[in-house]
Amino acid sequence: MRSKLLFTITLICFLLLQKGFGQEKCSFEIRGKVLVQESHKPISNAVIWVEAIRKGALSDQNGNFQLDNVCEGHYILSVKVLGYREHKQQLNVHGNIDLTIRMLQGEYTMEEIEVTGHQEAIHSTGTVSSLEGEILDERRGENLGETLKKIAGVNSFSTGASISKPVIHGLHSNRIMIMNNGVKQEGQQWGVEHAPEIDPFMAEQITVVKGAEAVRFGPEAMGGVILLDPPKLPISDTKKGEFHLIGNTNGRSGTASFTYEGGSSKWKGLGYRVQASGKTSGNIQSPSYFQNNTGLRELNFSGALGYSSKKLGVELFYSRFDSKMGILSEAHTGNLSDLEAIIENGRPFGEGKFSYSIQNPRQEVLHQIWKTKAHYHLKNDGVLNFKYAFQKNNRQEYDKRRGGNNDRAALDLELFSNTFDFSYDHPVKDHWNGSIGLSVLQQVNNNIPGTGVTPLIPNYDLINLGVYAIEKFTKGHVELEGGIRYDYRYSDAARYDADQELIERDFTFNNLTAFIGGIYSFNSSWMISSNIGSAWRPPNINEQFSQGLHHGAAAVEIGNPDFKSEQAYKWVNTLYHTHQKGEVELTAYYNKINNYIFLNPTGEQFVSLRGTFNVYQYEQTNAALWGLDLSSHYQLLPFSSWYFRASLIRAKDLESRGYLPFIPTDRIDTGISFTKENIGSFTQNKFTLNSLIVFKQNRAPDSEIAPSPGAYQIFNAGVSTVFPLGDKNLIKANLMVKNILNTAYKDYMNRFRFYTHEMGRNITLRLKYEF
């Protein structure tokens, strides 16, 4: 009897245990992707760990990870990676889980090694694209406008072969904010032929934000933001450097850059960096002739000294950009018949010749920045940020003068800018993080006497005050972000007109801007972002007061002091898809701009003793710009990959129903690469071949001086390799041929397309020595 009872109890317990085990499912998967919060770039080698079940994984090169055979239950998942704050997240496992984990830059401690960092990155739900590493090295030696063409939706607006400005979704100049090592670049950027006074060699990473970022940065960021970030200063006893040497056949140019950085062995956390570059170029050659007076000289320097600890960080920075460049001689004609003849001919009448000499017309620009910044970590994990920068910009433009005096500048401007920024980043709490801030800009612009010419723009004083607040919510698959900003601007302008009468006017502008955006991750492969924001821009002083010859642009420009502020509303949507063999990014945007100010060709000419010039007039209308950007990369074979980039943009004058001038044309850039890891002592060997197709601009205004140039296609090729020198040093070599077939073509976005073709074949050799 007892044996039967014992058997029965044992059987019941066994059945109950079987039932219990049947309920506890242990076949679930936790899949995810680890990304940088600021740029959405994947993070490799992040440590993912669930302590309760002693399971972990490392993220791969695409940021993906997977944990298998996880039992149903409640857990805490932690993610650690050097240079980022530890991420912890509660998991309720009742099925398969897909996660997108976004890591914040910060500090990380591992055993006895302490690494402290503070990154001034943009935390944006907008569309962000970056150039860094190998891709950026392949563009070294180019100006900023040309470098950024590797990003879909980014173009350049050029004046001849040497002067180029970045264009984001059809907007440029004062509608694009450039952050140079965390400082808002303040030069005479209003001029269409005033290239950014920036040395791209100082940047380890260049980032483009394509949304309306006026809330974060102020009025000039209505079209987008470009961030040039140098490497973080060392905080340990390490020393390293790099040397770039670049040569070009076209223009017979030589470029050199040197960077050296290190940390102190006596004072932990103290680091320094020095960087310098120089460039010399002669006349550029089109396929069948030289472009006279298109030489360039450039000499730049920057230095930084900083201290960083767990609580405090301080940095001092100085940069000097010094440039002298020639302006195409044929752009300045002596009389109306000569101007009409060269436009009809479409190129200079002579063959030209090579020379390093730079004659009038020419530009000489000197831009200097002094910056100090500091941050302090509070006990509640909040961060106080302070930044002050002083900038001095000297711009001189020299014209061809009849009767001598060619050594006297026709335009001599001196601009002083003071910028002050203060912000508080509150600690992350209940999935919320954000910041509030204050920014101040004060400027003084002076025309240096003695030019003998009525100044193109007046002397002026300007002050801009802005206060803002931004907040972000992050949880699981979702990120939501919003912000609001108020700006007040006052300017006072004074000038003497052609009759030597003093004209003085002051202006007051103010505006409220806001944005809201979000990111949703469907799974580890698919993600969508959407951002809609308002922005504004008060009229620039040149748009209000220009009334004469702009020498560098070889054009007469006429302004209007009664312009209203521009009001913009931009909506940007981006769909991302990543997989084991590649990635795809598709962006669609719409930008409505009320009171849009643009420089419109009148079709008229101005004749003076200094020559004959086309006349442009600033006008104001309501406008809309919309378009698509597509960027993709696919691994065809283990040794071969393919990329495809395309951009399409449309722009309309909503009042006249006509077209706007100087809007980029549609383009397709595609290429294929082949790699072989080792060939003897050479490693990372790669061969690339690509094609660029640019379509004709069939949507140009009727008032333009000459018809739009035709479509064109050019082919480029390159080969690169790495040669190790010992255990630490190495040489990277890159040989690139642009316009292999030496095709003669013109680009609509070049203001000198009326007088000349673009550059012909160019062979570039880049050598980089790391030590």
Describe the structure.
By secondary structure, this protein is mainly β. The protein has two domains: 25-115, Immunoglobulin-like, CATH 2.60.40.4130; 128-770, TonB-dependent receptor, beta-barrel domain (Maltoporin, Chain A), CATH 2.40.170. The protein is built from six helices and 42 strands. It has a 22-stranded antiparallel β-barrel. It is globular, with a radius of gyration of 29 Å. InterPro entries: Beta-barrel_TonB (IPR000531), Beta-barrel_TonB_sf (IPR036942), CarboxyPept-like_regulatory (IPR008969), Plug_dom (IPR012910), Plug_dom_sf (IPR037066), TonB-dep_rcpt-like (IPR039426). It comes from Echinicola jeungdonensis. It is a multi-pass membrane protein. Pfam families: CarbopepD_reg_2, Plug, TonB_dep_Rec_b-barrel. Keywords: Cell outer membrane, Membrane, Receptor, Signal, TonB box, Transmembrane, Transmembrane beta strand, Transport.
Q: What is the structure about, briefly put?
A:
Residues 367-740 form the TonB-dependent receptor-like beta-barrel domain. The chain has 6 helices and 42 strands. The chain is mainly beta and 771 residues long.
Annotation keywords:
6 helices; 771 residues; 22-stranded antiparallel β-barrel; 2 domains; 42 strands; single chain
Q: Roughly what fraction of the amino acids lie in strands?
A: over 45%
Sketch the major β-sheet: 22 strands, antiparallel, barrel
Task: Using the alpha-carbon principal axes, give the shape.
Answer: globular
Taking the alpha carbons of the first and last residues, their distance comes to 87 Å
Total number of beta strands: 42
The CATH architecture of the largest domain can be named as Beta Barrel
- CATH first level of the largest domain: which class? Mainly Beta
